[in-house]
Amino acid sequence: MGMTPEYLIVDKELVREVTVKQFDHFTDRQPFARRNVDDLLARSLLSLKGDDWRKMRHNLSPAFTGSKLRGMTELMVQIGVQFTKFVSSRSNPDEPLDMKVTFRRFAADVIATTAFGTPSNSLQDSNSEFFVKGTSLMDFTGKRRLVILGYTLAPKLMQLLKIPFIPAELKDFFTNIISQTIKYREENNKSRPDMIQLLIDERKAQIQKCKDANKPVDSDTIMSDLDILAQAFTFFLAGFETVSALASIICIVIAGQENVQIKLRLEVDEAFANSEGGKLTYDAIQGLKYLDMVIAEVQRLIPVAAFGDRVCTKDLHLPEFGITFKEGDIVGIPFYAFQVEKRYYEDPEEFIPERFSEERKAKVPPFTYMPFGSGPRSCIGNRFGLLEVKIALAYTLAFFDLELNTPDQYPIRLDRKKLDNAPIGGFLLKLRSRENPVVDPESL
């Protein structure tokens, strides 16, 4: 049946039932990869099932706590400063800038530093291999487009034919980087506060637990190198594209709504005025409440993930809904449809950031706003991603005025011929250095 669900949920209460209340009956997603075809994707948190998923989710959760994010903020802010210098250093400031490509460079540097513990220098080196390989991975043209379409329409057939979703040369590149990092740290007893280290430490704890219990240390009891590789790679795959796509779309909205840009700039300027040398703190970034509203409203109208699914893992009868789910049934959840439903949102097609103000967001009906999914299988890295987007946008607004490249770019119309949610007219914007920024960019 490919990606076609047996059921499509149109009742928000049934979304609650499937994703939260009866989660034990819907722990899995549709399998996207097989170990003998795409072992990195097959062992990732996105693809794992049942107890394997629970264990890995438990192992990864500490990487995304508030204290961990606070500790990562300084690293992200340093990249925000580099981002500002990168944009300012263009040879022709009047030439439109491809925001998605630019934010991909920012995202590559953030992920390389915070997850892999290795610099990518994507903002400093236009030919950074890390950036080039990441861009190639997300290239949806030519033969790659056929592979994407194949996995979208007939994933089982693609797996049966053993056509990998990830090209071998890209898999080898990321595998080598991560494997070398693991080997160096274990052989030299080195440590760094990032995702790879978290998983290395968890594996050490698992080994010690086996030894204390006089149990064999094997692949059934401890995390493998492949497990660590898979999580780090998936973190890059998700963060590289979703952060750059979301930040780019938001910039087009900001450029198209001058009143929104003015209000955001006032908020960001106040945060920078209270900073030390233009280095925003975690608390200052969290205090950008209007920016939170703008991001939330863009995610409602143009979500990076518009659809999700769950697989029933054991039979379940729900008499109040008149439905009996059988093991193996696929349940589709149209996140976007709920987010633009007039029963839940007044003027649902209109861009109104104030929907998500402190006073009004509590009135948003539960299970009608799901930009990161719903329930225990929602995106584990959503807080990390939002922090990254906020830093990228804060440094953009603090030092640049955003202008549309062409008048027809806004309101945004998505190009349905493309597979990556790209708007008609692309991601080109005019960024001009502000005349009197609160912080002198030369002092950064």
From TrEMBL:
<keyword id="KW-0472">Membrane</keyword>
<dbReference type="InterPro" id="IPR050476">
    <property type="entry name" value="Insect_CytP450_Detox"/>
</dbReference>
<keyword id="KW-0349">Heme</keyword>
<dbReference type="GO" id="GO:0004497">
    <property type="term" value="F:monooxygenase activity"/>
</dbReference>
<feature type="binding site" description="axial binding residue">
    <location>
        <position position="379"/>
    </location>
    <ligand>
        <name>heme</name>
    </ligand>
</feature>
<dbReference type="GO" id="GO:0016705">
    <property type="term" value="F:oxidoreductase activity, acting on paired donors, with incorporation or reduction of molecular oxygen"/>
</dbReference>
<protein>
    <recommendedName>
        <fullName>Cytochrome P450</fullName>
    </recommendedName>
</protein>
<keyword id="KW-0560">Oxidoreductase</keyword>
<keyword id="KW-0492">Microsome</keyword>
<dbReference type="GO" id="GO:0020037">
    <property type="term" value="F:heme binding"/>
</dbReference>
<dbReference type="GO" id="GO:0005506">
    <property type="term" value="F:iron ion binding"/>
</dbReference>
<keyword id="KW-0256">Endoplasmic reticulum</keyword>
<dbReference type="InterPro" id="IPR017972">
    <property type="entry name" value="Cyt_P450_CS"/>
</dbReference>
<dbReference type="InterPro" id="IPR036396">
    <property type="entry name" value="Cyt_P450_sf"/>
</dbReference>
<dbReference type="InterPro" id="IPR001128">
    <property type="entry name" value="Cyt_P450"/>
</dbReference>
<dbReference type="GO" id="GO:0005789">
    <property type="term" value="C:endoplasmic reticulum membrane"/>
</dbReference>
<comment type="similarity">
    <text>Belongs to the cytochrome P450 family.</text>
</comment>
<keyword id="KW-0503">Monooxygenase</keyword>
<keyword id="KW-0408">Iron</keyword>
<dbReference type="Pfam" id="PF00067">
    <property type="entry name" value="p450"/>
</dbReference>
<dbReference type="InterPro" id="IPR002401">
    <property type="entry name" value="Cyt_P450_E_grp-I"/>
</dbReference>
<keyword id="KW-0479">Metal-binding</keyword>
